[in-house]
Predict the structure.
Amino acid sequence: MLKSILSRFVVLDTFKVEGTQLQMRFVPDYFDIQQTNPIILIRVDLAEGVDEVGQKLARIQSGLVDDIETNESNLSISIESSESPINFSGSITWSYEEYSLSDHVEAIQLRDRFISEQQDEIRSLRLTIKGAVRFLEQTVARIERKRGLTQSKETGYTKQIELLERVRRKLDSPTS
């Protein structure tokens, strides 16, 4: 009988094949410092041919692992949206461990890249808003010139200017 050893989605982080020995390291699909022993290490002394291992590892790397079931001699890894699990047979051992220093470094690098991308997006949006405000100011100036050229006191220009000024104020101060 196989026992599930997985409580969250994981991805295959690294693997190593030496002779008939396969080692796999699975990490959560997101970094959560609050998780205790989130890393799963699995060692398999393969009873089957090593030739099939490369294809199986490629399938495991292709998506999120949503279940890992094992006993002492069988390992079954289920990939999200895959119909059939990937099976290994042989002597199976597994353990849980904490994040390594390199896991922490990678998480910080990912966070820094995300923050940098967000800052770039904010700068781009600020420039877009600045351009829109400039466009509104130029449009108001054109309307005021047109209004100055008309003889009639009652024109639609005043209402257009008021509307554009309200839009400009909203863009300058989006919280008001």
Summary: The mean pLDDT is 89. The chain is about 40% helix and 30% strand. Residues 104-172 form one domain.
